[in-house]
Amino acid sequence: MGKKTLKNKLIFNIFVTVLISGILIATIVGYVSYIRSINSKEAELILFATNLTHKTDVFLNDASSIVNKASTKREIVDWFSNQNSDSTIITNILEDYNIGNHYSAIYLMDTAGNTLASTEPSFMGQNYSFRNYFKDAISKNNGAEIGIGVTSELPGLFFSKSVKNNNAETIGVIVMKMKMEALDEVLNITHYSGPGHIMLTDQNGIIIQTDRPERLFKSLGQIDEKTLSEITEKKLFNGIKIEALPYDPAYALIKNGLHEATNISFYEPEDKEEEIITASPLDSLAAFIVTENELEAIFTDSFRLALIFFLLILFISILSIFGLSVFMARLLEPFEKLKKIAYSIGQGNFQIKEEVRSGDELEDLSKILINVSGNLKSNYLELENKVLSRTKELLNEKKQADSAKKAIINILEDVEIEKNKAKNLASDLEKFKLALDSTSEYAIITDASDRIVYANRGMETNTGYKIKEVIGKTAYELWRLPMSEKQIQQIYTTLKKNKTQYVGELKNKKKNGELFDSFVTISPLLNKNKEVEFLVSLARDITKEKEIDRAKTEFVSLASHQLRTPLSSINWYSEMLIAGDAGKLNVEQLSFINEIYRGSQRMVELVNSLLDVSRLELGTISIEPTLVDLNEPATSIIHELQPSILKKNLAVTLKTPKKIPLLSVDPKLIRIVFQNFISNAIKYTPEKGKIVVEIVFDKLSVLIKVSDNGYGIPEHNKEKIYEKLYRADNIKEKDTEGTGLGLYIVKAIADHSGSKTWFESQENKGSTFFFSIPIEGMKKKDGTKTLNS
Amino acid sequence: MTENKATILVVEDDKSLQDAIRIKLEKNGFFVITARTVVQAYDYLKEISKINVVWLDHYLLGEESGLDLVVKIKGNKKFKKIPIFVVSNTAGAEKIKSYINLGIHKYYTKSDCRLDNIISDIKEYLGQTEK
């Protein structure tokens, strides 16, 4: 039932009360109607039996009145007076009385019981004086009997009447034997379809007509011996042995003398059920109408009726509960609203939206509550405001006290810190100044507006300005910075936008207008907000360095032209002498000139190497990668060096993969690598030695590998093998042609192009030199020079 | 005899080298004309109608270099078919490219090359064109 609200409680109580009383009433009504229904059923049975009896009586009375009429008929009375007359005529007269063909025989008997005339020829001459109907007719004028005919052996109802002469003396008896079937019409036995069974019994309870043929000529109960012998004696049932049915209570009822229709109920063992038997005596005959009904059928009907009553009342009860609960819900609705209002006030919410409009005391109560809530609200708000303002005051006071306290502590701390800072700063600054002043570099510090706030003594010596002159001025107006707009923009972006250090060369102007190159490092100093507050520049006059560089470059140029020209002269004249252009030379002359020619050739080689070195060292070398098949330079160098190879009878093998992918390298540089590796191998391998040139590709790199089985490098020389002009001890004696520059150049190429070079060597066993290039090739580098110019 | 000989203009500032070239060329059957400046060389080209080959150094006496002479020769309809063999000690990669782009026949580094190698190249060239 959910929550124990008033509504629910009320509904529950009403429900229980109504249900219990409903059940009680239903039970009582059911019971009463059940009893009444049974009573009325019983009465119905009595009525039915009585009606049937009455109908039968009427029918039988009719039959007896026909006999009465016939007994006084002139011809019949006369016939008895003239007994010898023809029986045929009287038989025809008797036949006329067979109304509806109900009679099996109509016959006339004398006073001795002899049958004198009969519609049924077999009866003629028979004596029926033993019959009760005869005896009664003689003694009481009338007789009626039920029995089976001794002659016909058929059951029937015998009606008899004495025939009297004019002197009122009995002269004979007339008998009509009615067929049992004639009763059928009255009892409606053959077509009977009622709830039970119908029987007609004689005074001894012997069933002579019934809708259940198997019971015919059986007695309802056990007949006593005396009566049984009487029946036999009177030949009532023509010697049939009378069997007893187990209806003893009904039999007893009949035997005890019955004056009106009576019900009796008992357990009937034959049908194995409770039955109600109704017996009703006939007036016209010593016989009974007996009906048999199942008690259960009656009870079931009654019970069904009672159940219908019970259920009806129960249904009405439940219906009323629903009606009641709806009614209760409506009745209690204002209570719910009142509860909400009260709850809302309790929660401190005085904005009441609910309102009760029941029009009764509850509406009044809700109005009072809303009133109270209004008052409460104003009181509450007032109080709240007071509390708030008071709290605020308190908080303010506390804050003030706190901040005052903090301020005092801070001041004290600050004073101490500042004192220490100032001390430290002063000594730091002094050291800093000393350091800056003693350096030959010049330093300036500019503020956010680019104005110089500090300059060191180096600035004075380098630029010719006095420190006093520069403070407060901008670097631009002092040095006039004869730079390209692009460079100025680049410096500005680096410092002010990216806020990173700028390192580079600048062109400056001295006070006297003289230009000079400086190498500067400018660092931005950022404040807390990451804004550039100062720029600290340290600069060095590199004019002299530049001049030296220029001199170097000039030397390279000079060397390339001026040194090569005389060498060319020596080369070409020697060449002509050897060729015999100036006349045929003798063997000695030829050998001398050859020496001069070779010396000159070595000189050219040395000059070329020196030029390469100088360019590599100047960093002016450019790298111009193009797609190169490494097979090409390797083959070409081996081919060029063929004379030396043949001279020493060396076995040179080139091992390359079948398919060499093109590699992005500078062809001139890669030629120099092959040139140096292979020519070294030739120089430093004795005659008949073996040289293997290999190119190996893998996923990440390409490896150039030149191995020989020559003199090798002594362990103690390995460290210095890449140094400029260095030659290992063991080969200085054996070969005089080496310059000591080859591996130095290869190392420089590797360093400049992102490649690697190394070697493995064992003295007197041989060496292997490696040069590894990343698979993506050499990186392009712009320079002013290539190596072979 | 001179009519049958190929005429070659040798432009070389160094006297010693010029002599060596001339002697070697003459020994090889060439008619040799020598010049030491661009102006001089261009004058010879204009004066002497039948110059078959130009032998050219880069650095020359006077203001102009070998490149200037090539520009002049290639710019003149009359001379632009004359093959130019540049034999120099100094020209850098850039300059070599410029020479090649201007349409010279071949470039040699003096100190690295034998005279007879260059002369046989010239002969080979002339032999091809004569045929």
What does this 3D model show about the protein?
The complex is a heterodimer of chains A (789) and B (131). With 789 residues, chain A is an alpha+beta fold. Among the domains of chain A are: 184-294, Beta-Lactamase (2-Layer Sandwich); 439-541, Beta-Lactamase; 542-611; 619-774, Histidine kinase-like ATPase, C-terminal domain (Heat Shock Protein 90, 2-Layer Sandwich), CATH 3.30.565. Chain A has 20 helices and 24 strands. In chain A, the strands form 6 sheets. Chain A has a 5-stranded antiparallel sheet with strand order 2-1-5-4-3, sandwiched between helices. In chain A, strands 7-6-12-11-10 form a 5-stranded antiparallel sheet, with helices on both faces. In chain A, a hairpin with a 6-residue loop joins strand 3 (142-148) and strand 4 (155-164). In chain A, helix 1 (6-71) packs antiparallel against helix 8 (295-346). The mean pLDDT of chain A is 83. In chain B, helix 4 links the parallel strand 4 (84-88) and strand 5 (106-109). Chain B has a single domain (6-130), classed as Rossmann fold, CATH 3.40.50. The radius of gyration of chain B is 13 Å and the shape is globular. Chain B has helices at 15-27, 38-47, 66-75, 93-102, 115-130, and strands at residues 6-11, 30-35, 53-56, 84-88, 106-109. In chain B, strands 2-1-3-4-5 form a 5-stranded parallel sheet, with helices on both faces. With 131 residues, chain B is of the alpha/beta class.
